[in-house]
Specification:
366 residues, Naphthalene 1,2-dioxygenase Alpha Subunit, Chain A, domain 1, seven-stranded antiparallel sheet, 23% helix
């Protein structure tokens, strides 16, 4: 009696998911417009009238602090004839369109416009900026263009509490620096690369020998929601590439929380919080921002050194990897190969990629 044949291996996504402009456009109008995207940090708008801009799914948005202390998000477009309202970051007593000087309160309500009183039936109370849903997760501000989307705690169950456990001072942190990293690849290639460590020992020697202990590394999808959790221990202290104090709870651990689709909290040993956030510009272009944080954004020689080390090693190494994959996926010779799904999990398994690629399929397949 012969046994059953083993199941066919799970294969990686077809190249078209990364190279077809029509699929990217479908993502832009669907997935990227209906998911929580990083907008900025509350510390960028501490005082009434402080604002900062961001782009989500091709739309320009801005967040502004009201006189009531509430941080609100709006589409960055005048309701008169569509001119962009603000650029970059700054402070203003009122939001004034540069085109025809229509103005709005910090709450988005219409304030005034030249000669509008001459218009019969003009009703300023019916005019206001279009609001965008936003939420704060320990000071990190996220926006969602879908008014009906479930709240962040439903998308990413448990993450709020776990972050507070691993980074007890997270509420006091502010950006020390954000490093902008352009990549000539589809955004999903970059997110996938960030979400597996099958390549870490081979391609990231500094990270694998001076930050983490590879033999303890594992990545697992959340049982609920859209989270990938990376877990491992720190490297032996004498091999660590920066100093840490193991007397602090959780200091000897490393954690990453990938919040699908485009944001990642990364906690380095020593309770060091850093982040990745992505912006997709086209089917084969994206930008990654690496963020590093300290209490109040205060200067730190250790964090500066760690950020520089990361940029010169892991980030530079990953750029070469993702851009090579982007070129390879355009080759006539590419045939999607089997994912390495080790039943035991661990560093050399691609369970996380299977989960990510399932989410990718669900986003665009009817």
């Amino acid at each position: 009696m012969t046994g059953q044949d083993p199941p066919a291996p799970v294969r990686s996504l077809a190249a078209r998911y990364y190279t077809d402009p029509a699929i990217f456009e479908k993502e832009r109008r669907g997935l990227l417009s209906r998911t929580w995207q990083f907008a900025g940090h509350e510390s960028q708008a501490r005082e009434p009238g402080d604002y900062f801009t961001c782009e989500i799914a091709g739309d320009s948005l801005f967040c502004i602090r009201g006189r009531d202390g509430v941080l609100r998000a709006f589409y960055n477009v005048c309701q008169h004839r569509g001119h962009r309202l603000v650029e970059g970051a700054g402070n203003t007593r009122a939001i004034v369109c540069p085109y025809h000087a229509w103005s709005y309160e910090l709450t988005g309500a219409f304030r005034n416009g030249p000669n509008v009183e001459a218009v019969p039936g003009f009703d300023g109370s019916s005019i206001r900026l279009t609001a965008v849903r936003s939420e704060s997760l320990h000071g990190f501000v996220f926006a969602n263009l879908d008014d009906d989307a479930a709240p962040m705690d439903a998308w990413y169950p448990g993450v709020r509490e776990e972050l507070a456990d691993y980074v007890p001072d997270i509420g006091a942190l502010a950006p020390l620096e954000w490093i902008e990293v352009p990549e000539a690849c589809n955004w999903k290639i970059s997110v996938e690369n960030h979400s597996e460590c099958y390549h870490c020992v081979l391609r990231h020697p500094t990270f694998a020998t001076g930050v983490i202990r590879p033999e303890s590394y594992d990545i697992q999808p959340s049982g609920e929601g859209y989270v990938l959790r990376h877990t491992t221990e720190c490297q032996d202290l004498e091999r660590m590439s920066y100093p840490i104090d193991l007397s602090v709870p959780r200091a000897g651990e490393y954690r990453t929380f990938l919040l699908w689709p485009m944001f990642s909290f990364q906690i380095y040993p020593g309770n060091v919080l850093n982040t990745y956030h992505w912006r997709a510009h086209g089917v084969d272009a994206c930008t990654v921002w690496r963020g590093w944080y300290t209490p109040g954004g205060a200067e730190s020689a250790v964090i500066r050194q760690l950020a520089a080390q990361d940029l010169e090693t892991t980030v530079a190494e990953d750029i070469r990897l993702v851009e090579s994959v982007a070129q390879g996926l355009k080759s006539r010779g590419y045939r999607p190969g089997p994912l390495v799904l080790d039943p035991e999990g661990g560093l050399n398994s691609e369970h996380s990629i299977r989960t990510l690629q399932q989410w990718m399929r669900e986003a665009v397949d009817d």
